[in-house]
Please model this.
Amino acid sequence: MLAVPGQWAPRTSKAVCLRARNQLRRRQYAALAQLPNPGDNIHGFTVQRTKHVPELELTALHLQHDKTGAEYLHVARDDKNNVFSIGFKTNPPDATGVPHILEHLVLCGSEKYPVRDPFFKMMPRSLQNFMNAMTYPDHTVYPFATTNPQDFKNLMSVYMDATLHPLLKPHDFAQEGWRVGPADVENKDSEFLFKGVVYNEMKGVMSSADSLFLTKWQDHVFPAIKNSGGMPDKITDLTHTQLKNFHADHYHPSNAKIFTYGDTPLSEHLQEIGAQLNRFDKIAVDHDIKLPITLKQGIETVTVQGPIDPLFPTDQQYKASLSWMMCDTAEVLETFSLSVISSLLLEGFSSPLYQNTIEIGWGASYTPNTGLDASAKTAIFSVGLSGLKRHDVSRLPNGIKNTLESVRRSGFDLAKVEGQLHQIELAMKHKTAHFGMGLMSRLQDGWFNGVDPMSTVAPMETIAAFKEKIKEPGYLEGLLDKYWLQNKMFNFVMEPERTFQQGILDEEATRLKGKITEISQKFGSDEEVRKVLEKQEIELQEVQENAKNENVDCLPTLHVRDITRQIERKPIRYSTMDDTKVQWREAPTNGLTYLRGIYTFQDLPDDLRVYLPLFSSAIQRLGTKTLSIEKVEDLIKLRTGGIDLGHHSATSPSNLDVCEEGIAFSSYALDRNVPHMYELLRTLVQETNFDHRNVEKQISELIKSSASSAVNDIADAGSAYAQRFVEAGISAQGRLNEQMSGLTQVRLMMDLAARGDQAGLADVIDRLKAIQQFALTSGASLRVALTCSPESSSSNEAALQRFLSQLPSGVTPPTSDSQMAYPRDTKSFFPLPYQVYYTASALRTVPYTHADSSALRILAELLTHKRVHHEIREKGGAYGGSAYSASLRGVFGFSSYRDPNPLNSLKVMNEAGAWARNRTWTDRDLEEAKLSVFQGLDAPKSVSAEGMTKFLTGVDEDMQQTHREQLLDIKAQDVNRVADEYLVKRLDELNVAVLGKKADWVNPEKNWLEMPMDVQGGSGRGEQGEGSEDGYLII
Model:
C-alpha cells in the first residue's frame, strides 16, 4: 500500500512555472551569443560551421584542428550531464580482432598514467554515470558522461592520454588478448589451453547462434570489413607487434573524431584538447569507407553451417534472411524515408511482412539483422526468420517478394505514416536524462561513414522535408520500385549441423597443438616448453599481483567531500480518488503526461503468475471484438508513446519476509491525447478477445517466438539468469523474478512450444482469461502516479477520474498457499551448449532500512574493485566478475561472465569474505567505494523518473536520507564486521548456480545438483514436484 505523508506539497502555480521557463530561455539565448562563429580560431581549432536547433534547445559547432586535421563536434546545451567521446576509424585488416584487443589494451596504462589498468581504477575515483569503450565494425569509440565538472576534466585527461599515448605492454597483450598457458600453474600435470579476456569474450559471443548468424552474414555482405571483434580461430594469429603497428597507423589525431556535449564552455574543452593534439603532426591515414557487395548478378545465395539449439524443436533449426542494398546514407532524406518504409513493413503483428511469414507459420521470430541498417556508407534492408523448417527456406524468397509486390499494388496507408511521425515527435519531446549519450550514439556511425553530423542534430529539418515529399503521389511506393523490386537480393541461410559445436572444440584442440609445436621447435623438448609457458604464466601473475598494491596517486580523483550529504527532494503531492491513491509530480514535461499504475494482490497461484509475461504479450497481439490488432496498433502509435503492462514486485524496505506483488502498467502521451491513452489501456486489458477462432494459433506464435530466442538470450545475459535462479531460493522477490524472467520462464516457453497440435493450448488460454478478470480493477489495491506539467493537472485529474470510474471494483484474484520450491544452500548446474560459463552465488542479508545494508553496499564495491575483478577477470580470464549488494532485495552476491574457469571463480567468491574481514582498509579504499556507490545514487534522472522510488518500492525520502548518511559515514571496522558476519559466518548459506557445458566436476558426489534444460513438451503448469528431484523444481 502507498503510504500518504501527513503533510501535502502545494501545487506550483502556472505563473511561477512560466516565469522560470522564460528565465531559462533567456539564459540559453544569452549563452548562444557567446558561442564562436564560422571562421573563428580558438586554441588551434577553426570553426567550420554552426547550427542552432531551437526545437532541441541546442547549438552544434563543427570544428577542425588546424595542425592535425582532427574533426571536432561540440553540442552546446543547458544540460549538466556533460559527454565526451574520442573515436578512430579502425577498418580491420583481418579477423584477428586487432581493433577489439587494442580497445582493451589502450586502457591498460599510458605515459601520463603509467599504472596498470587505469580505466578500471578510475571507475571508483569518479562520479561518472557512463564510462566505456566500444569496438564497432569499422570504428572504435571511447565515451563517458558525468555531471561533475572536475570529474569531466579528470576523465578526459585519462581518455586522451590512454588513446594517444598507451604503453601497450606485452603482459597486457597476453592478459587481454591471448596466450597459451597451463590451466593451473601450480599443477605440473595441468593441461595447456588458450587464455585471454578477449579470446574468452568472443568464444562466449560465438556461443550464440544469433551472434554467429549476424557475424557470418556481415562477413559475406561486407567482405571488405573483417570481423573487428575477432574470431577465436583467428585471434591466436595476432602478434603484439602487429597490434602496436595498428595503433600507430590508426590512433592518431589525423584519424580522430572528437565529440563533446553539455553546458561546459567550449573554450575550456578546446584548451585542454588542443594542448594534447598539438604534440602531433598531420599524417596520411586510412579514411577508406568500405562498401557492401553490389549484387550485380541479381539474387545471390550463401549457405553456412551453424549450431543446433537444444532448447528448440529439432525440425525448426534453420535461419534465413534476404537483404537489399539501399541508398548512400549521406542522402539523409532518402535514408529517413527508407526507415519509415522499414517500420511500415516490419513493425507490429499487423505489418505485411509479419503477416506473411510468422503469422502463416514460417519461422518463430525475426533474425538479428532484420530491419534497416543505416550505420554504414550504404544502407541495407534485411528481413529474416529464425526457427524455420527446411522446406520453408526455399519458399522464403518468393514469399517475401510476393508480399512486397502486394504492398506496392495497394500502396502505403498515410495514417500509418502519421503514426510513425507521431512516435518521433514524442521521442523528441521526452526529456531523457541521457540526451547527450543518445545523441552521440545516433550520429557516430554515420559520421565515420561520410554522413553530415549536422543532419543528425537537427532531425526536424529532415522530417519537414519528408512531410513535403510524401505529398507527392506514390513517393514511398516509388522507393519500393527503386530498391526492393529490382530482383537484386542477398539470400543468406544458416543450416543446423549436429557436429558444429564439436567441430569448434576439435579445431581449437588442433590449433592449440599447432601453437605448442611452434613453441617446441623454438625451445626443444616438451619439458622445456612447459618450463617456458609456466614461467610466462608466473611472470604475468607476478605483474598482476604487483599491480594490486601499486601506487596510483598519479590518477586524478574526486573525493567524498564532493558529494552532497542531502538528497535532492522533489515536490510530490498526493490525492485520493474513491479508494485509489494518486501520486502527482508536477514539473515542466514539454507537453507530455506520464502514467504509472500498480494493482497489488497476494498469494497468486504459481500456475497463473508464470503466465503474466505471456498475457502482457497477448493483449498487444490479439485485438478485441470490435478492433482488429491492426487498428489497435495504429491507435497506440497515433495516440501514445506505447503501452506497457508487466509484473511488479518489491521487497518491504523494513522486512525481507514481506514482498509486495502486483501488475504494473505505464504509458505516456501528449497532454491532448491523455483521454485516448486511458481508453486504449482499458480496452487492451479488459476487451482483448481470447475467444476468436485464431487465438490458439496466435498464442502459439508468441510462445514459439519467445522460445526460439531462449538459448541466445541466455548466452548474452547468462550471469543475470544465474543470479535470478540463486536468488529464487533465498528471497521472496527473487522467487517472483525467477518465475517472470528467469530460467523457469524459459523452460515454460520451451515446453509449450514443443507441444504437438493435438495437445493444443486450451489450458493456457483459460489461464490468460483468468488473469484478464483481475488485471485492471479500481479500489484500494490500485495506486497511480502521474507526472505532468502544472497547467495540465486539472485536465489530467478529470481524465483519470473518468478512467477509474470505468474499471470494475471488488474483484478478488485467486490465491494459493503452495509455492514453487527452489534450491537453497545448493550448487545447481545447468548444462547448456556454450564454450564458456556463467556463474552466480548469493545469500540473504538484511532489509534496506537496516544499518548493515549500507555497509554491505560498500563491501560489494570494495570486493569488486580490490579482489573479484582482479582474480576472476585479470587472472582468471573471464570477461567480467563482480560482487553486488541488492539492498532493496536484501541479497548479497557474486557473478562471473563468459568465464573459462568457473571453479576458480567460485573459490574466489567463497574466500572473499575472509579476505575482506582480514584486510586493513585504507581511507582511500573507502573513499573509492563510496564514490562508486554514489555514481548510481546521484546519476541524473529524467523528469518522468522523479518520485518513482517511493511509488515503486516504498522507500520514502527520509529512508533514502538516512541510508545516504549511513553510506557516507561507513568506517573500515564496519566493512570488516559485515564481511565476517555475512560472508564468513554464513558461508554455508551461499546459493550457487553455474550455466555452461557439462564437465566432469558436475556430479552429486561433489554436491552438485544438475538441472536439465531439455524440452519435455509437458503441460507447462510448473507444479512443485512434477519432474523434480529432491523436492526441487527441475525447470
